[in-house]
């Protein structure tokens, strides 16, 4: 069973335990003497099952259970034990006819167990990982307050119903004064804990984590504004100049529907940017009328930091009437894309994206077919209006391909959710992932591929003399068809693709040497992804959190140039988070403790599904301040799942947007 399923099962058992303890309290309060013992036993049993589910989760990692083991279960265990000790003997006495009903003490203690169970689940959903002393104290005070209130309702001091008839006796008076003493003590504990917990929550948080490496040095500061791209192409290369004007436009979808899009140059996707390795790419971004402002971010392309397009960190967002010139040398070959990084959860969805493809310079070998015979298609997959489009609005669902021609399909997921890709009608290879070539990729067929948000796959094959179908999200009607010229066989019959197994890229291709030893990491950062109440951009929100915090309060990760850096990314939540680091590809080391055994897998986005734990590594060779975030763009921009990786000695003069609070810029 996957960790994600254990998380869900644990939530269900937690809900059942809450229901069982409250049911026990109600039956006891209503003096359903025959039913009450059974319900109480059920509550105890469900609680024991809960211990089992938490133990299972603990085996998957401390991150998944910390607040349950340190607070939820001990609280419930203590309250439940008291409840059984107080209510149990009374129920037995009633059954044996030696008493008329349960006492108030018993009822209150059983309800308190219910509050403890409820509080434990609430902490899991609102606080998550890591549990703070502040949250623990506030929770305990709330449970105490609940118990005291219940006591007042069930056994008002004036009537003293619980021990009715004995109030005149000395023991009765002692019982009353004891209860008063307990009430005052409980109240004092609740108030003190609440006060201390609230006070602690105002303590300032760390603004930087060092990951076990040294802290900031006194090295001379360099500004990201000075970390700009090369002014000249490599020998043999040319300068590729382009102007992109961002503007609103009405775009007609293949369905005939017109949508109000935000575009680069009035097109969706924006103009395809192509280059040959070593060329200098120079793009002048002009903003005509996008009031929110925008930038260009070169997704997966390791440009110098000043060209990265992160508003508030590497530049200011480009406002209407303004412009910004991006310049970088196209040294990396492969399939990439560009998009705005400002309010991108709206901008990219509305159309502010385009493709970037860089071809190798060394040209083609003599035995390779000429460009005319090759089929090379760049296919950004984007959802407009709930319809998945391939290659934008000019959705050519049919494309001619001569039999024997080498075909390369460059798939780019420009959405915020993963897509499932199936290629039917031919065996094929995944020659590159996120623009980087794989080592000895084997031929596969009848498999599903999961393309994370922001990710790219290059699929290559030799065109057969029959139709080849590219199927996205198992939709047999949509997608793309490659058809030999003259083929009149009509629509290819495609079998249902939803049952095809998913190819695991961690076991695809052959191992090869990597340029550093990931075991010798200089710094190690753990990011636990969850949902919880946190501040996002100065406002409290039910945020997508990293280590319990939201942007911009998540501490920066400090690295030194040359460091080998490891990330452990843990997903405690019930949603997938496509993790994306700017400026560096990361090498996948393992998923859920199982090492990557195929080709070295260098990616810029990896999908961390619910319950998964990924370990990745990279070498810090590109100085700057880099966004490190979830590429589900609403998670990042509205939800706060976004932080910065900061090189020692690099500063930014910019603020706002991704920049965070004043002082973080130093
Ligand atoms: Cu996310």
What can you see in these coordinates?
Helix 2 runs antiparallel to helix 3 (66-95) and helix 3 runs antiparallel to helix 4. The radius of gyration is 31 Å and the shape is elongated. It is built from eight helices and 34 strands. The protein is 26% helix and 29% strand. With 666 residues, it is an alpha+beta fold. The strands form seven sheets. Strands 22, 23, 25, 27, 28, 29 and 31 form a seven-stranded mixed β-sheet that branches. The protein has a six-stranded mixed β-sheet with strand order 1-24-33-32-26-30. The structure holds copper (II) ion.
Write down the oligomeric state: single chain
- Which overall shape is indicated by the principal axes computed on the Cα atoms? elongated
Number of strands: 34
Query: Strand content of the residues, in percent?
Result: 25-35%
How would you classify the helix and strand content by structural class? alpha+beta
Mean residue pLDDT: 90
Rg from alpha-carbon coordinates: 31 Å
Helix content: 25-40%
Task: Report the bound ligands by name, code or SMILES.
Answer: copper (II) ion
- Tell me the span between the first and last alpha carbons: 46 Å
Poorly predicted regions: 158-167, 661-666
Largest sheet: 7 strands, mixed
The number of helices is 8
């Amino acid at each position: 069973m996957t960790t994600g399923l254990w998380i869900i099962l644990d939530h269900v058992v937690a809900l059942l335990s809450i229901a069982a303890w409250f049911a026990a309290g109600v039956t006891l309060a209503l003096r359903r003497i025959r039913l009450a013992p059974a319900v109480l036993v059920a509550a105890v049993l469900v609680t024991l099952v809960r211990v089992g589910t938490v133990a299972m989760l603990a085996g998957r990692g401390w991150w998944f259970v910390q607040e349950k083991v340190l607070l939820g279960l001990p609280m419930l265990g203590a309250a439940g034990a008291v409840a059984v000790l107080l209510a149990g003997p009374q129920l037995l006495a009633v059954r044996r006819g030696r008493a008329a009903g349960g006492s108030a003490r018993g009822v209150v203690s059983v309800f308190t167990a219910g509050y403890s169970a409820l509080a434990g689940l609430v902490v899991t959903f609102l606080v998550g990982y890591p549990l703070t002393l502040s949250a623990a104290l506030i929770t305990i005070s709330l449970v105490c307050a609940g118990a005291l209130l219940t006591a007042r309702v069930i056994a008002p001091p004036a009537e003293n119903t619980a021990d009715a008839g004995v109030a005149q006796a000395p023991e009765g008076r002692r019982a009353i004064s004891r209860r008063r003493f307990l009430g005052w003590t409980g109240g004092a504990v609740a108030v003190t804990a609440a006060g201390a917990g609230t006070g602690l929550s105002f303590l300032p948080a760390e603004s930087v984590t060092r990951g076990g490496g040294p802290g900031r040095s006194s090295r001379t500061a360099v500004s990201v504004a000075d970390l700009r791209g090369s002014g000249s192409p490599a020998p043999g290369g040319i300068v590729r100049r382009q102007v992109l004007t961002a503007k609103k436009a009405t775009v007609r979808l293949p369905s005939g529907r017109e949508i109000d899009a935000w575009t680069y140059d009035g097109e969706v996707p924006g103009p395809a940017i192509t280059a040959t390795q070593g060329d200098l790419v120079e793009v002048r971004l002009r903003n005509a009328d996008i009031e929110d402002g925008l930038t260009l971010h070169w997704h997966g392309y390791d440009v110098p930091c000043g060209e990265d397009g992160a508003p508030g960190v590497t530049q200011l967002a480009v406002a209407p009437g303004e412009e910004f010139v991006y310049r970088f040398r196209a040294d990396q070959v492969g399939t990439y894309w560009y998009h705005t990084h400002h309010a991108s959860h709206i901008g990219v969805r509305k159309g502010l994206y385009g493709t970037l493809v860089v071809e190798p310079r060394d040209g083609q070998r003599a035995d390779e077919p000429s460009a005319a015979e090759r089929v090379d298609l760049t296919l950004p997959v984007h959802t407009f209006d709930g319809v998945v489009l391939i290659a934008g609005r000019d959705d050519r669902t049919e494309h001619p391909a001569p039999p024997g021609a080498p075909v390369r399909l460059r798939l780019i997921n420009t959405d915020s959710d993963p897509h499932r890709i199936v290629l039917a009608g031919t065996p094929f290879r995944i020659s590159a992932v996120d623009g980087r070539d794989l080592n000895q990729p084997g031929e596969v067929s009848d498999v599903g591929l999961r393309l994370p948000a922001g990710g790219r796959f290059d699929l290559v094959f030799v065109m057969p003399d029959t139709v080849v179908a590219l199927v996205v999200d198992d939709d047999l009607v949509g997608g793309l068809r490659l058809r030999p010229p003259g083929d009149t066989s009509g629509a290819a019959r495609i079998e249902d693709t939803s049952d095809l197994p998913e190819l695991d890229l961690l076991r695809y291709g052959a191992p090869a040497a990597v340029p550093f030893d990931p075991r010798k990491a200089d710094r190690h950062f753990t990011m636990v992804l969850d949902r919880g109440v946190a501040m996002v951009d100065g406002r409290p929100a039910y945020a997508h959190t990293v280590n319990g915090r939201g942007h911009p309060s998540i501490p920066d990760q400090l690295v030194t140039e040359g460091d080998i850096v490891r990330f452990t990314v843990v997903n405690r939540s019930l949603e997938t988070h496509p993790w994306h680091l700017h400026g560096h590809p990361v090498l996948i080391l393992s998923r859920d403790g199982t090492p990557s055994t195929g080709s070295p897998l260098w990616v810029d986005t990896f999908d961390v599904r619910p319950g998964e734990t990924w370990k990745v590594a990279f070498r810090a060779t590109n100085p700057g301040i880099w966004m490190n975030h979830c590429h589900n763009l609403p998670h990042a921009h509205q939800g706060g799942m976004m932080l910065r990786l900061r090189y020692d000695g690099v500063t930014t003069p910019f603020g706002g947007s991704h920049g965070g609070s004043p002082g973080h810029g130093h």
